[in-house]
Batch of 2 targets.
Target 1
Amino acid sequence: MSWITNGPLITVQVMSGLSVGMLLFLVSVGMSLIFGVTRIVNLAHGCFYMVGAYLMVTLVEVLPDRAWTFWLALLLAPIGVALLGGVIEMGLLRLIYHRDPLMQLILTFGLILVIGTLVLLAWGPDNKSVSRPDALAGSVKIFGQPFPSYYVLVLALAPLVAVALWLVFYRTRWGMLVRAATVDREMLGALGVNVAALYTQVFMFGSWLAGFGGALAAPTVAVALGMDGDVLTTAFVVVVIGGLGSFAGSFIGALLVGLLQSFGILVFPAISIVLLFALMAVVLIVRPWGLLGRPEP
Amino acid sequence: MRIRLRSGMPVVAIFTLVLVLLATAGPAAAQGKPIRIGEINSYSGLATVYTFPYREGLLMAAKEINDAGGVMGRPIEFIFRDDKLKPDEAVKAARELVGQEKVDFLAGCISSGVGLAISAYAKEAKTLYFATHCQTSRLTWDDGHKYVAHTTNNVNQYVRALAKKASTLPYKKWAHISPDYEYGHNVWDEFIAYLKLQKPDVQVMQENWPKLGETDHSSYVTALLQSNAEAFISSVWGAQEIAFVKQARPFGLFDKVKFISASVGNPDELDPLGKEAPIGAITPGFAWYDDGMQKRHPKLAEWVKKYQDRTKKEPTLGASWGYASAYIIVEAIKRAKSAETDKVIAALGEGYEMEFPWGKVIMRGCDMQAIPPQWVGTVKMNAQNKPVLGDIEETHGKDVIKSCDEVAKLRAAAAEKKK
């Protein structure tokens, strides 16, 4: 337990916890957004994260090897995922909005299997990896402790995304419509808003966020089959803690979960897995609708 | 289109004729009733990186065997089933294969949990099961019985070979990172026990048990850096180890603490890591491309070429295991002069040795456990800037594996526990 008095070490630990939290935030806010508007719990959301990472691998491979390749790929990969999301929304989900929630779950669960198999067919069974851009391959010293430079990028980018999201939702007309849709979809339709198009846009935007999370996370992990399942579970916990449909809730939930994982391992190594679900259980008992969620009327 | 349709009849006739000719061609091709082997493995999802090359090796051997006349004039045929990495799915498939398909034998497994489940079913169904790809030593030892044979390396052998190598390094203070499930505990227990046997003054400084499939390892990296250990062993594997290595590198972990890994030398980890590979790491691996390997095993290059021609890919350890497994199964049938379960078990119980392009594999009679060559090497960059395994030291499993007496004790202890 010598680390408790080691200030620099704790700082580094907080920062790596926060960077993990930031990646989680990107995935979970998309999931929360899609649920908030369409009322669908999208189990295939983790797949969008996985496809984002795989597209990143391919783009880095096929684009000419320059200093900007990584950044262009980081821009394009999530757009590809958004297009996939659009196709899925228009081709499948649109048909089941009025159905039983159980039916919707079965459909999105089926999508996990279909997308998983398609990824296997398209990219093959081998593990893949994306190298960090050379400028970010090393580490920086924080109070004398090494800290990976790439995590600095993640720490810097994710709050930018959070601020941009806030601006979109609270300062644009589209954001206002989205927020209105989370409160009362029928009324919004009755007021003459094209709700179907809004759903598609929201779903594509949510997919984009997950794809961006996957593309940004790709250099820190192995891009492999099964990466969708891991992220889905954790993102789900984040969304439940933060409150389904609440954007700020996702942000706080993701940071909490990131820090909990980072410190849980140091403090209670044997039960660090349980901590995550224990936190979720406590939140569900105290505030069943999540930290910043609204109780169902 | 119309023209083709009209001339369709003669084309069909010629085609049929060619087919008949092809089918009857080849004087040696096997013709009897096929010997059918139900093969259960994970052919979807994350384990495909191992099982696809394995299946290629298996099918390549099966084709060679059948082209050469099969076994006792009968071709061998594999009937594949996907276990989805789940023991219950595997047992369901085994029941169907034995019950409806009437297979002669069962084979397969990548996950140790699946292997143990199929083995338990095989014992109950009195059907011989060849575990071909999972590695837990429990299969033929603690949980061994007469209906299970293990045609590939087990954890005990390669971890002991690795520990033996580790004992020659100038490090006394050790730590580890192992996934918190059967395999991780198995590797760490075997490693540290054998290391202490070789070098009694070894100290364990610190332990890390991430969950299987953990994606963020920065806390473990911090813990390892703070542990004052001089060296550590990792039994984290596959995608998880790639993530671990990528996350540990910027912290300078591999410069400060010597890295020993149970699996990082395999191409499924080294290739994707590329320039981020942990240079200097000591690890087992099937380095068929190594000059020393090819010199010691003159037939290896030819086998590799055959595999590459067939699959357009480079072989893996799993591919060699699939290939060897088919031959080991066929050899047992040959020696039994029958595909009857009891006779094949009796032949396996006698034990036998086989030469493969990568060396000698002993099928030991007392536990029906394969004992193959063992390789430990060091991760290096080759001239093309691709990470490879170099400085390969080759030993044999027979020099390290637990003896038949020890196995008997393990089985007796396990039987005692069940009571």
Target 2
Amino acid sequence: MNLKLIAEQMLNGIVLGSMYALVASGLTLIWGTMKMLNFAHGELYMMGGYVLYFSLILLGLHPFWGILIAMIIAFVFGLLMEKMILRPLLDKPGWHVSPIVATLGISIFLQNFALKAWGERFKSVPYFIEGTMDLFGFRVAYQRVLILVVAAIVMVGFWLYVKRSRFGIALRATAQDRDAATLLGINSHRVYLLTFGISSALAALAATMLAPIFLVNPWMGIPPQLKAFIVVVLGGLGSFGGAILGGFLLGCIESLATVFLSSEWKDVAAFAVLIAFLIFKPSGFFGTKEW
Amino acid sequence: MLKIKNIDVFHGDAQALWDVSLAVEKKEIVTMLGANGAGKSTTLRAISGLLKLNKGSISLAGVRLDKIEPYQIILHGLSHVPEGRRLFPSMTVMENLMVGAYVSSAWKSRSSAVNEMTEIFPILKERRNQLAGTLSGGEQQMCAIARAMVSQPKVLLLDEPSLGLAPVIVERIFEVIQRINRRGVTILLVEQNAHIALQIAHRGYVIETGHVVREGPAFQLLQDQYIKQAYLGL
Amino acid sequence: MAIILLILPVFIQDPYIMNIVILSLLFAVLACSWNVICGYTGIFTLSHQAFFGIGAYVSALSSMRLGLSPWLGLLIGGASACLTGFVIGLPCLRLRLGPYIAITTLAFSEIARIVCMNLVGLTRGEMGLWGIPGFTDISPWGGHVISFSGGDRTAYYYVILVIFFASLGLIGWMLRSFIGLAFRAVRDEQDAALSLGIDTTWFKLLAFITSSFFAGVAGSFYAHYILILTPTSVFSIELMIEVIAVTLIGGLGTFWGPVIGAFSLTVLLEYLREFGEYRFMIYGAMLVATIMFMPSGLSSKLFPEKE
């Protein structure tokens, strides 16, 4: 086994892991506040990818604007989704299952909408920064470094925001006790609405970062969503820090699996780890006692 | 000041309150007594908007509370300390108090508002960075009351503050409640412990299976034979 | 209605329509079996496509590699799906919350799909498993041979019809018995059930193995009917979503709901074929609309008194 190869793959794994963490953080945010699993998360991711593609290729914008627009559009879409479809289901019985069904339906709708509207051909988006650099003796593409940097800034920034800001307190309070939060003047519906929007924007951001590497297509959201599920269980459903840790862990597991098994089996390895966690430590790293 | 008029409240399909009426005048302490499941907490939850009215009205200083969104009620100066305290378990004492300052006007000056609370409740100052879930029962109750007081409400609803607490602690809590009242806060106190409730209250109501069965000044209720037997164990 | 189904082929010879009816019956069996674990026992699983796929591949491979009769394949497929159901069910026993179970079962299904895809030597992966033998000719009452080759679907129709009746009969019997009661106790009030001495673990596992068995049998039939398999056609999440849609639209937790849903949806999807690529968009929208406006499904509209 080539040590250098392993290290290279690990680096890749960390970069990828940061994106898994980004996608998963949105998912865990929704779970933490609303106690639901968003099966359309991957399609919000996909939407981000397509908006970026159109911004860059059709409108010729600079990647910065493309990313921003993608995040905004995803944010709005998340708001609409919450307001129109999830909110009516919220206080009705069957909440532990109805949002899964609803978001599955939305997911199918969006995947096929993209297929119909933009075709099945994979679309490519140019790298934001060309070239490579030397990092600890390894050749790393600037794009990948950018991914890591963006992920770090966004997640640290968001974590601080949630800790300090008024909205952050509202979010955490609503997540821990919705009624008590309401009594203290917090509009839980608005918290859910914004949480959904933010979660969608985070997913879209991850998509834009990875689009140059993985190409844009109607089904691009499926693997990240599955990975995100794994990450949130590893980290503990509802824990933002857990999602970050879980994301990096998954990235490393996958890269190790690629080296020692093969890339075809890396997903099986990931799922196997998920199942192991669910058997032995369902609450994940930082999760609550509820599972 | 706080007027509850002829309210009917349902839990799903089951009726919980029948034609319940209450009035709380400014700066009073009014207590609502009753056994478990009689409808006391239901009444408070209806006032705070967590439960909807099927009939009747609730108004505070002329404003119809049952016509506005639950989260807006605190803006009108009414604060509710819920049954079981309901602190945010993964937040520290300080953070819990901070949530109390969420309402716009209090937010900008939240540090000073929160600090004032820790002066009034010195035990909280000690435990400021402790996770709320790790506090003792009495400390949790103090924290919950403090949290509700941060926004400087005019009316305070207290749901069974003595529940699960040792008599010594209960006395301390009720001292605090009286202190709060002396500062001009109107209090509606719901209690199973009729004895101590009637000691600090000006007036009282007794509720049984969703109906108000007795009302009157506290000293009168203390003399009432029925109440003495049923609620005071005499 | 049973009579209608029995004499149907007399009136309908068109293989295209026969195909639709056959698929409807197939989906009815699939949906009914999922209804057992989700509608009656309250465990929302995303692994039914795995049971279907395993039943299909095991049966196909056992007839192709081991030379076993496809008739036996039905049972072997069902049994292997059943075993898988047991394995998948075990970790799910401790989990209480819907999302956790959903993720677990989905993970297992994905593993099944990827394994099937990767073991190219065995399954030929995405290239597809061709040349699966159809049901072998049988002569049930001396002399007259029922042939399964050729374009005539009639024989296949009767096979699936028998499977349909058998599955529904067995499931129905089970649900009407104490087992059904126990399932519903697990669904509605697990703690109360436990305190009444109902071994919820045992019943949850029972739900898993029975629902997976019938799904496996359905899969086996499918293999010997369509005669070619790919991992994506039988192990995909799309299939699971179809099962969910069928059961939900028909009526989750009702006995006839899945059947109504299966026929309605299969026919509807065929009709929508003219809409081409809009098909699945309409499909997704229907799923959302159903859960929002008609969560108890069609059967509650058609039979308001029933179950």
